[in-house]
């Protein structure tokens, strides 16, 4: 089962975070958790079982699973691992100031007692691409460990800001993880340089009306295939990216030029001023006229 959340709707709540130094052969599970969870291996080694997959776990390995996904971790006898665990809800309200939820964050069940439906995947972003949080990925310790160490530290605090700090930390981690994975895919994707050219050309054509046939002309792929490759690499469709570029150009014209809203709409070929106004307000958060007036304020 997949849980898809738009980036703009991401509003996570960290419900538990901890560092655990495991003894030789220490194991937990099979179990499942009520929240989404990251397990990060800081030191040592062991084994991870998530759903039907088995992984070796060593320094830098990050694991993710959703609510109801059975999992088990077992430390090595000679070099047991040190783990960080972080439980979270992707969307939720922050607890009361200073409140720490001490309820055990896991349910331990076996066999037929495991839930029949599990949220096995968390996908962030729109339907054109989206970022599926990976079940397992190896990360540089210098990138990942400070996030989880800070989350564990914040969770132990009882001041008025510790829940807010946890939320901000997790949003930053997820966005940076997304960008890191996107860059890695771009380096491995043989079409990456061609698709980057498409992005450049879309920015250059932002003052025109969108034409889907550009994709085949610029890539020599069928336009549907080119759009699918673009969405996989960048997490949004070429048309969505083009609209973003067009609106950035509109914001620049509204702020810097003596153009009316109607003139701006016509210059950028939005089709109609009504369409331009609706799109601008939905994506920018205010009407073009209001944005134009703000550009003349200090």
From TrEMBL:
InterPro entries per the record?
Answer: AraC-bd, AraC_XylS_family_regulators, Homeodomain-like_sf, HTH-like, HTH_AraC, RmlC-like_jellyroll
**What Pfam families does its record include?**
AraC_binding, HTH_18
Q: Which residues form a coiled coil?
A: none
Domain (HTH araC/xylS-type): give its ranges. 196-294
> Which keywords appear in this protein's UniProt record, sorted alphabetically?
DNA-binding, Transcription, Transcription regulation
In its UniProt record, a GO molecular function of this protein is: DNA-binding transcription factor activity
Q: Which PANTHER family match?
A: HTH-TYPE TRANSCRIPTIONAL ACTIVATOR RHAS-RELATED (PTHR46796)
The name of this protein is AraC family transcriptional regulator
Q: What is the native source organism of this protein? A: Cohnella rhizosphaerae
């Amino acid at each position: 089962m997949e849980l898809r959340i738009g980036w703009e709707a991401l509003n996570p709540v960290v419900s538990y975070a901890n560092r655990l130094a495991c003894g030789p052969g220490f194991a937990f599970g099979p179990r499942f958790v009520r929240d989404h969870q990251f397990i990060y291996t800081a030191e040592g080694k062991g084994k991870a079982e998530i759903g039907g997959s088995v992984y070796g776990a060593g320094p830098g390995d990050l694991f993710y699973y959703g609510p109801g996904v059975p999992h088990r971790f077992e430390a090595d006898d000679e070099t047991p691992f040190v783990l960080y665990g972080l439980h979270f809800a992707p969307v939720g309200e922050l607890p009361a100031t200073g409140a720490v939820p001490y309820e055990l964050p896991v349910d331990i069940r076996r066999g037929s007692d495991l839930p029949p439906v599990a949220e096995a995947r968390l996908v962030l972003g729109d339907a054109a691409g989206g970022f599926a949080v990976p079940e397992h990925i190896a990360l540089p310790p210098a990138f990942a460990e400070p996030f989880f160490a800070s989350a564990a530290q914040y969770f132990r605090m009882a001041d008025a800001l510790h829940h807010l700090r946890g939320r901000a930390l997790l949003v930053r981690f997820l966005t940076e993880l997304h960008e890191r994975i996107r860059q890695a895919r771009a380096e491995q994707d043989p079409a990456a340089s061609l698709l980057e050219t498409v992005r450049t050309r879309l920015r250059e054509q932002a003052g025109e009306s969108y034409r889907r046939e550009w994709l085949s002309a610029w890539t020599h792929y069928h336009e549907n295939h080119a759009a699918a490759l673009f969405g996989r690499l960048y997490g949004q469709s070429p048309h969505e990216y083009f609209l973003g570029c067009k609106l950035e150009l509109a914001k620049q014209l509204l702020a810097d030029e003596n153009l009316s809203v109607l003139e701006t709409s016509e210059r950028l070929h939005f089709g109609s001023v009504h369409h331009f106004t609706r799109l601008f307000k939905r994506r920018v958060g205010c009407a073009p006229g209001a944005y134009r007036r703000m550009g003349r304020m200090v």
